[in-house]
């Protein structure tokens, strides 16, 4: 039964958010087509999305939501095993516009319907309008026939990472940004996170990656890869602005304890680049007054931390030939039971995010015991 829950919180009803490395039933994505985000009519980006979806489909069911005018094109480009569904959107960032899924010990699946304002609304947001994005969570709840919890706060999925055992990592730069929830204090936000996601311990990092246009999403800087273990975007170059951000995060993570009292083991992943937008890449994008500018020479917030953890695969971005092999070797060491698949992902980065940003895991429902 589909019901937007009223006064009861998900936690009071027994729901919580599982870790990404826990088993999934599916992965959700959206199809890129927006010409002021994706160059050359999104054709290069579409190819990158096809490769990401194909890699994840080795591991679990993949749903790709498509606007009606692109349905036939997407269906012809994507493998037959991938489920293409009509699901209108303003752009293709399923991590942020899609639902946060919750599970219950009795086998139920539910989702959180956060507010969405395109990463800042009219005060720094990346595009307008975002009306189609705003309806995606409701539509997915109806498609799956699961309960939908309405959370009256602005929050994107890329802003949080959990270990499934009571610990959440986020950044002050994003969740406490005045362009999201200006009337909420840090204590207010922590209360929302605890009551909605079932977490006890919240680790606040000050900032996300340098020049991340999402206002510092944590999933581009740091993520849980196992209970008590995180991966962190890192550079040894102390002249790079990212160095101070990563060093600051490392100091906090090394002092932190998770919800079970464990210290965190931090694995450093080398930063690609630095990477900047080339002249021909910028010239292929429609320049509109209400969209985020993408200019030649602009630095992009590239990070190998922005990978997707599937049931049997980890799909990682290939961003820099000088660093790709080193990053892949580290990720393979972190996930010895999963096959690491590298996908050329510069076209996704040109749009402002990466593989984790365009995907959203649907956790496996707990099966009732007979």
Automatic annotation (TrEMBL):
Transmembrane segments: none annotated. It is an enzyme of class 3 (hydrolase). The keyword Hydrolase applies. SUPFAM superfamilies: Pentein. Keywords: Hydrolase. Gene3D superfamilies: L-arginine/glycine Amidinotransferase, Chain A. Its EC number is 3.5.3.12. One of its GO terms (molecular function) is agmatine deiminase activity. It catalyses: agmatine + H2O = N-carbamoylputrescine + NH4(+). One of its GO terms (biological process) is putrescine biosynthetic process. This is Putative agmatine deiminase. It comes from Halomonas caseinilytica.
């Amino acid at each position: 039964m589909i019901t937007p829950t009223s006064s009861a919180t998900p936690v009071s009803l027994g729901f919580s958010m599982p870790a990404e490395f826990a088993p999934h039933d599916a992965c959700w994505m959206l199809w890129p087509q927006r010409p002021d985000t994706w160059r050359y009519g999104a054709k290069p980006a579409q190819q990158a999305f096809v490769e990401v979806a194909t890699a994840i489909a080795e591991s679990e069911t993949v749903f790709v939501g498509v606007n009606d005018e692109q349905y036939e094109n997407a269906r012809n480009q994507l493998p037959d095993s991938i489920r293409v569904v009509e699901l209108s959107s303003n752009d293709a960032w399923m991590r942020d516009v899609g639902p946060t899924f919750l599970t219950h010990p009795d086998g139920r699946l539910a989702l959180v319907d956060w507010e969405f304002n395109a990463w800042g609304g009219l005060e720094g947001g990346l595009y307008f309008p975002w009306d189609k994005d705003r309806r995606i969570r409701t539509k997915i709840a109806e498609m799956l026939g699961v309960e939908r919890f309405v959370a009256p706060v602005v929050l994107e999925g890329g802003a949080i990472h959990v270990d499934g055992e009571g610990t959440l990592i986020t950044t002050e730069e994003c969740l406490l940004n005045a362009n999201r929830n200006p009337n909420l204090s840090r204590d207010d936000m922590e209360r929302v996170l605890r009551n909605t996601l079932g977490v006890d311990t919240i680790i606040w990092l000050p900032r996300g990656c340098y020049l991340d246009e999402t206002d510092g999403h944590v999933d581009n800087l740091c993520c849980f890869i196992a209970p008590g273990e995180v991966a962190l975007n890192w550079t040894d170059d102390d002249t790079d602005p990212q160095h101070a951000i990563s060093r600051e995060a490392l100091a906090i993570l090394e002092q932190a304890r998770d919800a079970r009292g464990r210290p965190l083991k931090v694995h450093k992943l080398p930063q690609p680049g630095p990477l900047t937008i080339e002249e021909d890449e910028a010239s292929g994008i429609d320049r509109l007054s209400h969209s985020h500018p993408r200019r030649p020479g602009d630095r992009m917030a590239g990070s190998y931390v922005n990978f997707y953890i599937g049931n049997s695969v980890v799909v990682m971005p290939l961003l820099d030939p000088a660093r790709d092999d080193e990053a892949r070797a580290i990720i393979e060491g972190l996930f010895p039971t999963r096959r690491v698949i590298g996908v050329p992902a510069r076209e996704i980065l040109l749009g402002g995010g990466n593989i984790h940003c365009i995907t959203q895991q649907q956790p496996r429902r707990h099966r009732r015991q007979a």
